[in-house]
Amino acid sequence: MSQLQGEIISAGAPSSNLGNYEEAVANFNWEDVEKQFSWYETGRVNLAYEAVDRHVAAGKGGQVALRFSDASRDETYTFAELQALSNQFANVLRSRGISKGDRVFVFMPRSPELYVSVLGIIKVGAVVGPLFEAFMETAVKDRLEDSGAVALVTTEALLPRVKRDELPLLKYVFLVGENIEPADGIIDYYKEMELAPAEAEIEWVNREDGLILHYTSGSTGKPKGVYHVHNAMLQHYYTGKVVLDLKEGDVFWCTADPGWVTGTSYGIFAPWLNGATNVVRGGRFSPGDWYETIQQNKVTVWYSAPTAFRMLMGAGEDIVKGYDLSSLRHVLSVGEPLNPEVVRWGCKVYGHRIHDTWWMTETGAQLICNYPSMPLKPGSMGKPLPGIQAAIIDDNGKVLPPGRMGNLAIRTPWPSMMRLIWNNAPKFEEYFRIPGWYISGDTAYMDEDGYFWFQGRIDDVINSSGERIGPFEVESKLVEHPAVAEAGVIGKPDPTRGEIIKAFISLREGYTPSEQLKAEIARFVKEGLSAHAAPREIEFKEKLPKTRSGKIMRRVLKAWELNLPAGDLSTIED
Ligand code: 6R9
Predict the structure, then answer these.
(1) 201: alpha, beta or left? (left if phi > 0; alpha if psi -120 to 50)
(2) What is the pTM of this model?
(3) Measured between alpha carbons, how far is 238 from 233 in angstroms, rounded to an integer?
(4) Between 306-315 and 287-297, two packed helices, what is the crossing angle to 10 degrees?
(5) ipTM beyond cut 0.95
(6) Where does the AMP-binding enzyme C-terminal domain start and stop, copy by copy (predicted)?
């Protein structure tokens, strides 16, 4: 067991929304959460209505919903304005016959149009498919093809990455940009918006109807479409209340991009379901710009990731002194293990505990968290959300006692649990192979006080800067390069990014290893798949270790890299 476990930082805010943790757990009831929504009385469900229109109906239409800024724009939108704009986009979609259950993707950098589009798609009952702006041709095509997307919202700059001739089901592209030439299937976003009425009928759906399809990586196969339903709003709302601790008047900033689940569940749904002002900052990471964002918007609640906090720590304490960060009340983290050192630094430099939270694309919302009212153990992910039962179980489903490492598992179901993997029932069932449990793929242990401690992944999934990368997707791209015979990809530990992608490659006949070839291969992945999936390190090998069935043994590559014993080699080829 970790010797870190003894360190405790006392509760920050006993008067937070959750209040006493044990009492909240004992008294918890999801029906009490349901009562917060208008559909508890009306029976009419739509997440977009609850996130936006409900606040307007309650007389809060003039409150600021969105504060957007990037290098060229600085804009503010009230709930009433968001309501009107998302109605307009819903009308644009309807005029093209797009309706309930259709998959409509958004592929663009963070912008007000992105947020308006997501809300409009949900308002017509269609399913949102967010795509990260760094995705290149192959990544975009795989996702649009698998989901059978009928429409896409994108920008002129990103359009060349959409291979429309290979996507027969993709009927419409709504293009955000100036001076757009309408062509077949290409629709001028701004022009249509201008003509569309600002009132729209909301498509009332069932709680179990589709909301969003997030593609994420596993260790094998192509990315999986993780499908969530409107019912997830229960947990988005509740975690927004008790984990983000959102209160009337809060200004919330989630630094994640909506291409990833944190950027939708917490960059869109949780803050707006709670009526908070949502800050969105476009552009790249830079410590000065980030502190400026907090200062300028008077951010009160800030949700980011360990890599970002480590980079801010690397930028030092002096730069912090140049900004007024006194608006901050609550700071949180997600995506990868949060180092105790970073938590201590946060206490010292920001004067705030950084609250780690654990969850996954598949879980839809936070499950294991640190709460403002609970003592914090640096290095621990915290305790299960009230209403959630988490446990460490062995491979047969036996619950293990405190201190024993095993599978981190969650009792099924919970409101924001994924409802299916698109087109892949066997993959979905793998997560539920032990009756009554969801198997996360993470390993952890629970201590005597009920705190959970992350240990690692069971599979080969790579976590670089909090982004999940499937080694198979990268390997598949690598072998498309003419010089590459075989490729094996692993996560190599890295002090800032958690892990970086390292590729072991054997070359085809006629190619000689060189630094130039390494750079060219890395660029090939960057341009074909996405920048975050490109290997930062490449090592050429004569031969890669393989099983007799021809599978590359990443475990052996990892052992090579870390100078560890390679373990059981009984299945190796030679
Ligand atoms: C929300 C999100 C999920 C995987 C998960 C785990 C890792 C997330 C963590 C954490 C340690 C935490 N992870 N939170 N590891 N401590 N607090 O990140 O979703 O992109 O699907 O990644 O990320 O390994 O299984 P997703």
Answers:
(1) beta
(2) 0.92
(3) 8
(4) 100
(5) yes
(6) 473-551
